[in-house]
Every structure is written in structure tokens, then in C-alpha cells.
Write a structure and sequence with these properties.
With 470 residues, this protein is of the alpha+beta class. It folds into 3 domains: 2-137, Beta-Lactamase; 187-281, Helix Hairpins, CATH 1.10.287; 283-317 and 332-465, Heat Shock Protein 90. The chain has 11 helices and 15 strands. The strands form 4 sheets. It has a 6-stranded mixed beta sheet. Helix 5 runs antiparallel to helix 7, helix 6 (232-243) packs antiparallel against helix 7 (249-274) and helix 9 packs antiparallel against helix 11 (410-420). The relative contact order is 0.06.
């Protein structure tokens, strides 16, 4: 912007300077010619009285030397004698005598002004030579002066415009930098309102907006912390009720779920008080094995699946390969990702919970984990009715909200978790007839900064099957 304003000032000033310089130069040339002619006429007027009094050549030579004033002056007497310098040809002089009036004759190197004078002895001629070089020298000097003045004006206006633009651009850059930093989460950034009045008002509006954003974020964090704290009362009641269920598998699973829920609530409260988004705060250096976590979560949900008569299957890679002697040789795991087991468990619980909440009892499902070069994929399929909204809209936060109790947040939460580590989430038609959710995650060893395309590979044989498997 700064250089644009400087170029505009340069162009405008240059056009204005040329608009004045060219007509002024032409006028100066005309004025120079008129001045030279007036000086020549003055010389002729000074010699006319003397020529009327005497034709003595000695006196006339002295007069020519005195009155010439730097111009080349000559006199042609009636007898043909020439005093001073004559540039005109005899035929031109004869024509001037015949005209009996002042005449400008074109001669080599300039012009000669000839004035006939009638004497008692005949017609005399007074000549004044006007050289072109004399006027051209003055014009060149005038043109050089005008050009220098125009160049100084153009340069000065450009420098002034650049200084003014620096003030405007500096304020604009400061405001843009503050806006970028605020967008990156630096809520404490403010600008010093300066520059033109409009930019100063924009800076003040930015500061007011930033203050309001800080207030809204603080109020939202307090509300999240307060609401989360209120959940502790019903959670305490649930934990006590779960403790009274005995030592059955269902009781243990209920107690485990209540304990995990309490941990999540505590985490939300701490994150809100610390000024972080609890659901999105990654754990530094956390890793997990996808297959192990998936097995653990499918084992947890299998009890509820049995109760609701839901057939289920799990497909996953083996953790060891038997060698020729029949012993099991453990291979290096290729499904380690840069996500904590807690976060991955929560994501899988979200996807599996969607099946139990949004499909009727008896709807089957399967979970598949398979690895490829540099990535690991988790496919969750069901035989339900599928999505009630288009696939692309279902991935938008809150878009899937409906009357069935859906908040429209589950798929978006899992998608953000996958994209945080360079993975991706997609939905499609399941081979079972319902919805398929495909989560692709880069492995820890070869994780790339950009999301990779979901890995497609042949599904391995079933590792474990529940009731109704076929």
C-alpha cells in the first residue's frame, strides 16, 4: 500500500508538471524571439536619427560600434557601401528596398531585420542580424531550469506521499497483526489507536471488541466450571448406587463408567479454571495402541450388546506371529498413534454409543482395525437405518441435532481428534446396510502434518464374534 500511494503521487505530480512545463516552454520560446526582435528594432530606432543627419562612414562606424549592444548591425548606404556586417543577398536587399518597409529576411543561421531609410542621396538600409543560436542558448537554459524545478516538485511530492503512507500503513499493519494474534488466541493483545481518524476509530473498536471477547470467554468458562461442578452431586449418588449393586459384571462396569465420568468432569473443571478448552486440550507425549484400546472398548460394550440382543463382531490384527517351532514371536506394533488411550477410548465410546442410542435393539454392528503403511484405520459399521442427514452435513458441528436426542456433536468431536494428529474421518454406506464411520490415523513413526487419505485394505479374518455372528 505504501509503494502504491507513492507511485500514485509520482504519476499525478508528473502529469501536472508536464501540463505546465510544455506550454510554459513554448511561451518562453515565443517570448525570447519577441525580445530579440524588440532589441533589433531598438537598434534600428537609435541609428535612424544619425543616418538622417550624416552619411559619413567614419562617424557611422563609430555609431555602429557603440550602439550594436552585442547584436550584429550593418548599414548599406545609397552608393552601395556596406558598413558593419551584411548577411542578406543583393536580391533580398533589392526586394526590401522595393517594399519600402521593415522586412525580416531569412538568412543562413538566423534572420536579418532590414529597415529602409529614405535619404536625400537615395535609399539606405539598416540591418540587424538575429542568430538562431543566441535564442536557442537561452531556451536550453530555460528548459533546463524548468525541468529541474519540475523534477524537484515530483520528487518532493513523492517523498511527502511516502511519509504520509508510512503513517497510514504502519497503523494498518499494527491493526492487522493484532487481529491475527487475537485470532490465534492471544486475548490480551491490544492496539495503540493512531494514524488517520478512521484507522484510529477502527483501533478503538478493536480494543473494545477484544475486551468483550475476554469477558464472554471468562463468563463461559465460569459457566462450564459451575455446571460441571453441579454434576458431582448426581454422580456421587450414582457411585453410591453402583456400589450397592454387588460384584456382578454389570455392577463393575457401571462403577467403572461412573469413575470415568467423574474423571472427565474433574478434567473439565480444571481446564475451565486454567483457561483451556477441556475437550480439546491434548496430552503432550501421549501415545496408545489402537488395537488394544479398541479391544478394551468393545469388551466393555459387549455386555450391553448382549442385553439388547445386538450381534457384534470385532476384526483386528494379531499381536504376535508363530514361527516354525510353534512359539509366538511378538512383532513390533504398527498401530501406535500420538493420542492418549483416554482420548481414543472416549472417541470410540462416542461412535459406539451412537449405535446404541440411535438404532433399535437387535441392530448388529462390527468394529474393524487394520493397519497400512504409515496409517491405522478404525471402521465402525452397523446394520441400522443410516444417517437422517447427508453425510457431509453430518460432519458439521451441531448439524445432526434432531428430535431423537442427538446433539450433533459426536462425529465432530471424533473428526477434530483425528485431524489434530493429521488423520481424517469420513462416513459412508456400511456393508451391513447401515452407517459406516471410517477413522484414519497416522502412526507415530510416520505421522505427516497433512491429513492422509483413509486407508483401504482387505479386512482380516474375525478375531472374536458375539452372539448372532454369521
Amino acid at each position: 500500500m505504501r509503494w502504491s500511494l507513492a507511485r500514485v503521487a509520482f504519476a499525478v505530480t508528473s502529469m501536472i508538471a508536464l501540463a505546465f512545463l510544455i506550454p510554459l516552454g513554448v511561451a518562453m520560446e515565443h517570448i525570447a524571439q519577441e525580445n530579440a526582435r524588440h532589441q533589433a528594432e531598438a537598434q534600428i530606432t537609435a541609428l535612424e536619427p544619425l543616418l538622417a543627419v550624416t552619411t559619413d562612414q567614419a562617424r557611422l562606424d563609430d555609431a555602429l560600434a557603440t550602439l550594436s549592444g552585442g547584436q550584429i548591425v550593418g548599414i548599406v548606404l545609397p552608393g552601395g557601401a556596406v558598413l558593419g556586417t551584411n548577411h542578406a543577398a543583393a536580391s533580398q536587399l533589392t526586394e526590401a528596398v522595393a517594399q519600402r518597409r521593415a522586412t525580416s529576411l531569412a538568412v543562413a543561421g538566423g534572420q536579418e531585420l532590414v529597415q529602409p531609410e529614405q535619404l536625400s542621396s537615395g535609399m539606405a538600409l539598416i540591418e540587424v542580424y538575429l542568430a538562431d543560436s543566441a535564442s536557442e542558448h537561452g531556451l536550453v537554459r530555460a528548459w533546463a531550469t524548468l525541468s529541474a524545478v519540475a523534477a524537484l516538485l515530483v520528487l518532493g511530492s513523492t517523498v511527502v506521499a511516502d511519509r504520509l503512507a508510512t503513517r497510514v500503513v504502519g497503523a494498518s499493519r499494527h491493526l492487522a497483526d493484532a487481529s491475527r494474534r487475537l485470532g490465534e488466541g492471544e486475548t490480551g493483545v491490544r492496539v495503540v489507536a493512531g494514524g488517520p481518524r478512521e484507522l484510529a476509530e477502527a483501533g478503538e473498536a478493536f480494543n473494545a471488541m477484544a475486551d468483550r471477547v475476554v469477558q464472554l470467554i471468562a463468563a463461559e468458562r465460569e459457566m462450564v466450571a459451575d455446571l460441571s461442578h453441579r454434576l458431582r452431586t448426581p454422580l456421587t449418588a450414582l457411585r453410591l448406587n453402583a456400589a450397592g449393586l454387588g460384584d456382578s459384571q454389570a455392577a463393575r462396569q457401571t462403577q467403572e463408567s461412573v469413575a470415568r465420568l467423574e474423571q472427565e468432569v474433574d478434567r473439565i473443571i480444571r481446564a475451565a479454571r486454567a483457561g483451556k478448552e477441556g475437550s480439546a486440550a491434548p496430552l503432550a507425549g501421549a501415545v496408545c495402541e489402537v488395537t488394544a484400546v479398541a479391544r478394551e472398548r468393545i469388551a466393555f460394550w459387549s455386555a450391553l450388546a448382549e442385553d439388547e440382543d445386538r450381534p457384534w463382531r470385532f476384526f483386528g490384527p494379531t499381536s504376535g506371529v508363530p514361527d516354525g517351532s510353534g512359539t509366538v514371536r511378538t512383532e513390533q506394533r504398527t498401530d501406535v498413534v500420538a493420542i492418549s488411550a483416554q482420548e481414543l477410548s472416549a472417541a470410540l465410546d462416542t461412535l459406539l454409543g451412537n449405535i446404541f442410542r440411535h438404532t433399535p435393539e437387535g441392530t448388529g454392528f462390527q468394529v474393524t482395525v487394520h493397519t497400512g503403511e504409515g496409517s491405522v484405520a478404525v471402521l465402525i459399521d452397523d446394520s441400522g437405518p443410516g444417517l437422517a442427514v447427508p453425510d457431509g452435513l453430518a460432519l458439521q458441528r451441531g448439524a445432526g441435532t434432531g428430535g431423537d436426542g442427538s446433539t450433533g456433536l459426536g462425529l465432530d468431536i471424533v473428526r477434530k481428534l483425528a485431524e489434530r494428529v493429521g488423520g481424517a474421518l469420513s462416513t459412508g454406506r456400511s456393508p451391513l446396510g447401515g452407517l459406516q464411520v471410517h477413522v484414519s490415523l497416522p502412526t507415530l513413526a510416520s505421522r505427516q502434518p497433512q491429513p492422509k487419505a483413509p486407508f483401504k485394505a482387505r479386512v482380516p479374518r474375525a478375531r472374536r464374534a458375539g452372539r448372532g455372528d454369521g
